[in-house]
Every structure is written in C-alpha cells, then in structure tokens.
C-alpha cells in the first residue's frame, strides 16, 4: 500500500485456481485486499519481474464467493478449495461421482450405524465478507437412512471470534432426493471472513453439491490499473580485479561482490554502507579482521567485526553499484577493529550525542538514567573509568535481591521514516543474575508515542554473569510514522552492566553475493574435500588451500558421519556417488554405509521470535533485527538418502557418508574410498579411513534426548494408517538414540458415576514397542482432564477463584483416574519411566499461578509422592521447591550454576528445556551436539525439545515458519512466528521420493551428542574404578577436563553456535582424547 506495508495477494487463473508459480497466463486476475477510507481513493503498488525474488509462502486466501462450489475441479481425494476432516473407520468424508445434482462430482459423508455423532465435515474457509453487507447462502443435499440431521453450516467472524454468525441449514433426516437449503444473514461489524461446510450430525449417508454464497448488497468499490512504471539503474563497478598485496603474494583466497542500490536521484558522496558479512566472518571460515574492501582496484577504509562490515563510499544517483570484498584463510590481522570503530563513532555519521560518555560530571550529558517507574532499592547510575573509547563509560548497578525493573540509560534520536539505521554499542557484565543483557530501543512518533506497526526492538546475543566487552549491533528499518528512535541501554536483571561506544547511523544496505575462489582454483571440474560434520557447508564454500585427510573415528555399536564438500567447476555435473566399504588389514569390512546428500532450504530472515499486529490481509514479516549468528540465504539441513548428485556449476554441495560399526567389529584402522562417477567414468575419488576404538557403546543411552512427536498433515503417508506412520517414525528416532515424548494412543480413562472406567489394551500394545522394544527412556502421563470436571467454580477462566482450593469433585475424579493409570504402570513395570508433565512454561508472573501449581502438585502427590512432576519453568521458582520433582530449566543463563547444585542437593531432578535453540540458520550444529555435554557436566539427566516434526510450511520450500495465532493469557492473543527450524529436525520423505522420515544434519549431530555422553559416562566409571585400584588416571582426568571446557553456563545460547563453540574441531579432538583414555583404562 502507499505506506509501504506489504499486502497478501492471489493470482486467480482462468479456471479459478490459485497460481503460485510460473507464468501468469492471459485471463488471470489479481485479487488483493482494499484499504480505502469512505468516499476516498487509495493506491496499491504491484512489483513484478524481479528474477532474484523468492516465491512467497502465503497468498490471500479470501475469495469473493465460494470456490469450486460445484465440486468439479480437484485432485487426489478432495475438490479444489475444500478440505475433508480426518476420517476413522466409522466417520468418512469423500469426493465422489455418485449421482451429483449437476456436473460429474459431489461430496459425500458416511457415518456408520451406532457411531458417535460428530461434526465430521468437508469445509471451506476464508470466504471474504464485507461487514454490514447482506448475504444469501444456497446449497443442496440428498440423504439415505440419515438418523439425526444432514445439511450445511456457515460461520462468519474473525480470528478472535470466528462464530459471530453460526447457522446450521438442516435439510432433515431420513431418505430423500436433492433438496435445497438456504439462509440469509448480515455480516456483523468486525467480520473478516466466512467458513462453510457439510453437516451429518448422526448416522447414515448424505451427498452435498452446488453451494453458492452471494452478496445481496451492491458493491461499493471500483479498481483501476494504471500505467506500468520501470526504474532504470546505472550499473557501476562490475567485474572484480583481484587486488595485489605486495607484502603477501596471493594472500586473498576468495572474493564476493557487494551490491548497493541507491534509488534516490541524487548521488551520495560519502554514504555509510552496512553489509551483513556473517557468511565470511564466521570463525573457522575466514578471518573477519583481515579482509579487503575495494571500489574497483582501490582499497576502502572499513570496520569489520563479527558479522558487521561498514565502509564509506560514493554512490551515484539511481544506481546499482558493485564493490568487492576479498578474504583470506590465514593472513594475519593488520587492522585494529576498535580503532576502526572509533573513527566512525566520532564521525558525523553517528547521530548519538555523547556516544562515549565523556561529557558530563557525575552523570553523562544527554543520557537520562533511571527506571521505568520507581528505581529498584539500592540501584546506582554513574560513569566510571576507564572506558573502551576514552576515560569513562556508563555504569548501571542493581543489587541482587532487588525487585527487577527495566533500569538504565535512554536517549531520543531523531530519525527519518523509511530509513535504515545501524544501532550498536559495547556492553560488559559483572555478576549479572536473574536475567540477561542486550541493547534495546523503542520506535516513537512525533507525539512521543509508540509507533503503530513497530514498537520495540532488541539486538545482540544475551549476556549474563561476568563478561568482557561484547559488541552488539543490528540494522533497523524505521516505520512510516517514526520520528524518534529511543535508545535503551537498560536491563531487567541484577548485577552490574557497563556501556560504551554507542552508535546510531543511517546506512545504505549492501548485499553480499556468492564467494568465488581465485581463478586458478575455479577451473577444476570437480573438487572434493572433507569438512567436520559439526560445520555446515554452503553453496559458495570454496576449496581450502590444503586438503587434509578424510578420517573418522568411532566405537563399536556407534554410527559416525564423514562430511564431504563437493564443488563443481565451470560446468554442471550429474554424478553417482559410489562408496567402497572400509576394509581393515585382515579383510574385515564395515558394510553398513549410508550415503546422503544435504539439501539447502531458503531462510528469509535472521532467526528469532517475532510478533505481528498486522491485519490478516497484510503479509506478516519478521521485521526485528533477529537474534542469531546466521543470515538470510540458503542453509543446509535435510539429509536426503540418495547417491545421485546433480551439481550446478560453481556450486558446492555437502555429501554425507555415515558408517555404522557393528558390536563385534575388530578395533583398528579401515580404509575405503568415495568415488564420483559420471557415465561410468570416475570424475573424482577420495580415500577415507575409519578408526574403530576398542570398546562398544551400550544399546540404551544414559542420557535422555526427548523430542515431542506430532504427526498428521504433511506426514500422512498414502497406504499407511496413522499408527503405522507413527511406528515408522519411532523406529527412525530410536536409530538416532533420541526419544519421543509419550506413548500413543492414549489409554481410555473415564470417571463415570463415581468410578473409573479404563481400557489399556491399545496403550499397552504401543507401550511394549515404545518402552521395551525400542528402549525409549520415558513417557509423559496422558492428559489429565476427566469427566468434564472443572478445577474451580465459575467456568473458565475462573475469574476470582481461590487458586489454592480445588473443587472436591475435580480432585476426586482426577486422583481416581491418575491412581488407575499409575497403578497400572507399576504393575507393568513401567512406572520408573513415567513423568507427569504438569505445565509448559507456566506464566509465573500472573496472579494465582504460583498458588495453582502448589494446589495441583499437592493433589498429585496425595495419589503417590513417588509420581515425578515436571514443568518447563526455564527459571527456578523458590515457591515451588518441594512441589515440583523435575525442573525444566534453561541451559543458557536462566539458573546460576550454584542454584542448580542446591536444587540437586535438595533432592530435585534437573532437565534442560530447549525451545528455540536448535535452529537452522546458525553456522554449526553446536547446541545439538553439546546439549548432552551440558547434561553431563552440570548434573542434568535429560533435555527435552518441544518438537521433531512440527511444520507450518513445506519445509523444503520455506525454511521458516508461518505466523500463528497464540494466546498468552485468557482473552488475549497475537500473531507469533517461531524461530527458523524450531520444532522440527526431520522432513517428510514423500516430496523427495523416500519412504519414511528424512533426517537433518541437526538431528544427526543430536545423535552424535548422545554418543559423546556415553564416552563421558564410561570414562567417569573407569576413572572411579581405577582410582580405587591406585592406577594412573592423569590422562583420563585431562580428557574429562578438556570435555568440561567445551561448555559453560552462562553462554550465548544455541542460536549463536559460533560463540558457544568457536572451534568446532575441539569437539572431535575431545572425543578422541576421551576414547584414548577409555582404552588406556580398559586394558
């Protein structure tokens, strides 16, 4: 629209279907939402013909009238625009050709005699309605032996209340031919759409056809397309001349273009260009401090640190200018980033006043300090020395034990609506507890109020505890109503925080293109080199100067991946990957070898949690800076089981060769080879070795890695029942040493007439496979709502209830049902694997939640104090000590290590809860690999993650999630987007032709982490035994100490893999040291 806000749209083809890709054919229509004041006109802008644009995942679902109301068009088992409810043996919704009223097809619903009445239906959603307009719904029904009612329904409303209108059009029961039903309604104020569908409430068979929804009110809008416009840009820059450095011959290994667009007509003489340089500055790829920025052959001064590259350059008006960045593997850093940053800090580009806190006496000028409300007792605001960029810096201190309130420094900085601004500061912590620290800002309009579309911003990896100076930065686009960007150097924690070097500057965004190797290295038709499997490989990765040996090590009864980067030269290649099984000197082979090709998925925005208050017809976008060390682009993740590699020219693809070592394999070295074959000709061949350690890993792991399993939708498999699909997925998980969350199907447990009615037959059959055969280490109890009993009087949300006093009828029913389940699990020998998950992330700050949890835990423990109650609280809540048995805490900075120790000493068990950590767009699979290490070194017995299979889009096409409606308290909801890859570590197999789930590099490293734990567990036991025998344990203690050094609490969190694991090779080095120590104590 004219405010620059993106709208959803729909391209309707000539046949009425939605066109989502390819050519828009003649006769198609553009459908878009109109936002127009009464009696006025509004303008929308349609952008097209951008060859670099990605497909969009969301289209305007609303249509003017019912889509495909005659049921004639469709594919598979449903007509286009309609969705069947899930079927069972007694309730089925179908698309058939059995005597339609018109045309060749109609809908059919069958409910078996004696079946429970349900609202099974075939439905259509998102039919647009105009508030205040009058509508007529007409449809047809025929029936055979219907007992109950058959007909249609219509709901009209919005996301908060979808049933402002709720009407059922009943055609009657019995047997009859085609019969019309109709209704008339007025769309209420606030309504945005209608949904409608079939009804067979009862038993029998009914057919449905020819439904239409007609607006009886004359249309009030007209739309006119005007002349197309095109922008012509001057192209400046062009091909890159390799810069010669007289001191180091050939020091630059790779280069990438940086493209800068200036749409203004005036030239910019000294524009500050910001580039997200994460792809080239991530540790282990290239040295971020030693790069070169050139404008043609001229080197430009710049600031390069972490993921930030800033440089000043002249940019012509209406131009696309190309600059170049050259990078080196090993040249020494020759520029001080603090010196570079200091020059920008003091320049006219910086809009922050007193950015280095040098002006002022006891308090700095231009920086009001305090709290939002009453300052916490004992809080101190001051300036201290030395600073990072001068004599002093700003200090905020909040004593431990004080009430947590947002406290710190603020400054209003005028900004230009629509401008892009780089915001940065340096932050240092001293004993920060009860929270973490980032830098923040508010978007404010000319009246000083929060802006309409965007209100708050935060950036930087959270820090806590005691840290050195940490750089935090991000780029923020100002909304149309912005006048002030209010900087907040604040914290909602206790301890001491220092700030210095605050920068806010308007920038031109520069887009980093693909890396290219030096010309002499680019000519090879195919280049192959090994890469640590913890490290993610990208399409523009270039070969290293020196290729090391391809080597993996593993114990017996362990699987280990060998990752190879395969890069094509100037021409594309199609090759078959052939692996010769590794063989030892005696001829014994390791034959269990799997080949997989790592696919790339697109990521649109650096990951984080995002929210939106946009209307449903706007495209909801991730607009905040994000919170990870990744970047937008193609990311490696799905591990597709295939040996056929189709490689584009000048592109790198990761290939995995996973070797599983049997329990009886002799220890020692095995040698194999990977060949890349094209038309019976070997294009490249790489030998590799496998060293098998002289010990075996156990069948059952000593640490639990729990992932919630949700199936359905994209996971449905043709020809397989949901039960068969679930069993296949469970075996897939067990092979990777991870556990699902619970046994399913749930047992049938009801409380009727004062007694428990239970049927455990199907549950026990599933539990035997889940717990006994597959060895899953735990299961959550079934959901605990029984017999319709409410915990409090008055109805949900029980306003005014005394949360400490549960209704006696509720307690009686709940305890009876729980006791029946618990006694059954004890009888079957499974009770030690049961956990009662009482609450996911309880909102402890809301009134009554603490008391409610206490009452519920007391009720449960009255059944049996041995029932372990778990809650993913993230933090320690002292009021629940003695109530919760198992605490789900965060591994980042949520609970101090001393507090974890005290909880364990008090008899509590600890798990890590890990939502939002295992994301796609971070350069290493660090948290997946390291979580078992955190468990081992901090006395935590398991970690749980809320999903292995939760999908909102086709994950191959879109690597991010849709915005979903979510409520954090009764009566309030908002649109929320979860982090990229959050909730799933597996992919459906059907889109890539695989029968079963497809793994990911993240899931495979989760397995590697669980196997690492067994090395640690075994060595600790051997050390204990050897110490009692007086044997030398020095090597083993050094290995355990090195392993402990891999993990620390507090830390930056899983979304910052390059910070929690700056040297990915350290994981493999530690594992090898552990293995050698195990062998040393096993003799």
Q: Largest sheet at a glance?
A: 10 strands, mixed
**DSSP strand (E) fraction?**
35-45%
CATH topology of the largest domain: TIM Barrel
Average pLDDT score = 93
Please work out how many helical segments DSSP would assign.
Answer: 13
Distance between the termini: 74 Å
CATH class of the largest domain: Alpha Beta
- Tell me which CATH architecture of the largest domain applies here: Alpha-Beta Barrel
Number of strands: 54
Evaluate the radius of gyration.
Answer: 32 Å
* 3D shape: globular
Low-confidence stretches: none
- The level of helicity is 10-25%
Into how many domains do the coordinates divide?
A: 5
Specify the structural class: alpha+beta
Walkthrough of the structure:
This protein starts with 9 loop residues before the first strand and ends with a helix. The chain is globular, with a radius of gyration of 32 Å. Helix content is 15%, strand content 37%. The chain contains 13 helices and 54 strands. 41% of the residues are buried. Strands 13, 14, 15, 16, 17, 18, 19, 20, 30 and 31 form a ten-stranded mixed β-sheet that branches. Strands 21, 22, 23, 24, 25, 26, 27, 28 and 29 form a nine-stranded antiparallel β-sheet that branches. Strands 6, 7, 8, 9, 10, 11 and 12 form a seven-stranded antiparallel β-sheet that branches. The chain has five domains: 74-215, Jelly Rolls (Sandwich); 234-335, Sandwich (Immunoglobulin-like); 369-507, Galactose-binding domain-like (Jelly Rolls, Sandwich); 520-694, Immunoglobulins (Immunoglobulin-like); 704-1070, TIM Barrel. The chain is of the alpha+beta class and 1083 residues long. The model has no long low-confidence stretch (mean pLDDT 93). α10 (1001-1028) runs parallel beside α13 (1065-1082).
